[in-house]
């Protein structure tokens, strides 16, 4: 990572924009940031850290402290930093929240926090993120270092330089945890603790299950012993429930199972005998039931036969009716044909009479002879129609020719009128053109205001939308902050609940241990076999489940509090962004301004529209005048050709009119004469055809009646009417035939079944069968069989239950040993990882991992410390146990080669402390960089500490810093030591002006 350029505006002691070009120091590799105390040297590093992370290492009060006190209310505050990571160049811009004057009304308003991240692509800055949260997330990915890692690796800030060297173990652990992200090892230890508890619960559950299974088997055996039917003739056996030996209890269960199996065999034999007795009773009862059914069926068959024989006369009548209907069916078609022929003859005769009446009427009207031969009339009129149809074409053409003549005369009149109208219109054009030009000048001036008005209007629309959004988001912000406060209170209450439960659990451990004490057995704590005064149980015992539930509730409450905090922060950011886009003005003020701007824009739009209309009218009028001149010349040519054409058409129309008058005669028109002739011809033709059709229909009807008379004479019927009455509909005939066939089939079947039953009951007792007695015998045998089945089933269930319980008891005791060994191993591992016994160093897993990291840091630091201290001092990691049981493993001490003794870091002098801190900080930077993916650190800053060094030690420190330049790295040193100004020609000078604000001068030595 390399820094290129830093710009500070209204930040810290700097009011005006100050720029630092870090690329200018690439050739020197090391430069000095010099200035008087309080001038603002460290503020340059504060600006770098704020640009990248939104915070500074020196302040605890947040970014509101970053705005320069020298700023006027309207002055901006902003930090911009350009840097490169890998092959990509970035530019980040940040501004803290501060108070500025409101743009509308009096008072101050908050300018929200602002952030923007851009990337240089092909020489152009491309925006990648524009909100503080999005910028922070993207920078986390780009940088790969947290703020704390950055301050330990790149920015060795003032007041934190020697913190890592002199910090106690707990503080050093916290710092290393933040740098290396080792909290997951703490989670591993917690998870192992949970596994240890779970394994012990499994062992306890298996033991409890074995005892439960034994008790269940003993209850079954006891229930068998209490049943007099089960224990008749058997020994009661020992009282297994009173036997404390689990092995003896298991043997007693096996003995009870064997006795139950023996009784099952006895009950099985009894059930077999009951099955045979029930089968015999069932067979006897079935035989008597069958006899009773046959007797009842014989009686029903005799009753059915009598009923069928009594219905014989009705069936005979139906059979005779069906035979006559079948005879009449052969006459159905001739009868129906004769009826149709009679109806057709009547209809054709009526049509012929109607046609004759129509012919008489039309013949009388036109003067034709009604008694003439109709066929001759049709032929004569058809010939006349051929002549008059030819004359009809001339009549039709006359109308077209008259229309053409009228059109030609109208065209001539129109052309004459158009020429006169064009002459009148062209006389008015010059005055209208002058009027349009005078109206156009002021319209152009008003139309020029449209674009500025639209820009103003669009800006106000956006600001109003932002202001309305800010009003909505203000409500969301208040609700989110209230929800966050509620969730924070709930999380604190849940944490207090967990602490109270843990304390109560500790208070109740003595009662729990006392509850499992047994006289004669050693105590798990003191080993004594007598327990004269065991502690009583707690009033309200606290179980693992209660603690686990409370911890789950606490974790859930913390998660909800984090979610609510994130929501509140997001709401604040969104509200601040909306307020900034609104320009700090309220929605009401912006609405008023928008209405005024809309009115101005509408007036300008109307002026533009009217200007365009007038310009269009002017252009159109000039074009129309030119077109009118050309049109008048064309119209004059057309008029000269139209006048002779109208005269020729008038002569043609007159000749055609004379020919049509000759053909029309005394009729209104030739078409009327042709239509009348067609009506005469059609009436004569219809009368002639109707007479012929009536004669044919009458002959056909007479023929059909003669055929019917012949067929009736040859049949069994006296006349046609009798035959019609004998006819039946097909469905009725089918139903009658089916009824007759059904009767015949039932009569035959009943007689056959009656014969079979009489033969079957031949030799059987005459009286009714005694099925009641056989049913009682069957019920008694069935009850005895059911009782035997129930007893056998219960005995079988008891045997199966005891066998299953015995197998489960054996499996439970077999699993207890394996689970107990696993639980002991897991518990030992969990205690070791958590720093409890048998861990004699009291070093948990996270501390062990961090100790390994610390050893690497010390190794890297000693490379430089040996050179800076001329081989006298060497840092070394110590895992000696801390006093009063405190956690150990992260200690640091200094080996003094002069004395051969290790000494605490606090015993070093000020200069020695600086050298050791510098070496340790550089070693820490190398290790953290390696852990962060090998990020190349091309820029490094060291803030203060050189004033405590003597001249020789300062040379050693400078030589060490000079070595850091290798590989193109640039090192910035902040100091006011005069000797360093002489050694470092490349400098940034920070000076406080007489007015108060500071300024930065590059490549110059400040006179301080």
Q: How would you characterize the overall build of this protein?
A:
By secondary structure, the chain is an alpha+beta fold. It is 67% helix and 9% strand. It contains 23 helices and 17 strands. Strands 2-1-4-5-8-9 form a six-stranded antiparallel β-sheet. A six-stranded mixed β-sheet has the order 10-14-15-3-16-17. Helix 6 runs antiparallel to helix 19, helix 12 packs antiparallel against helix 15 and helix 13 crosses helix 15. The longest helix has 78 residues. The two termini are 32 Å apart.
- Count every beta strand, where a strand is a DSSP E run of 2 or more residues: 17
Order of strands across the widest beta sheet?
2-1-4-5-8-9
Profile the largest sheet: 6 strands, antiparallel
Which regions have little confidence, pLDDT < 50, spanning 5+ residues?
231-238, 1004-1008
Which class do the helix and strand fractions yield?
alpha+beta
Number of helices: 23
Could you tell me the mean pLDDT?
Answer: 79
Helix share, percent: 55-70%
Strand content: 5-15%
Please report the distance between the alpha carbons of the first and last residues.
32 Å
Radius of gyration: 62 Å
Task: Name the overall outline.
Answer: flat
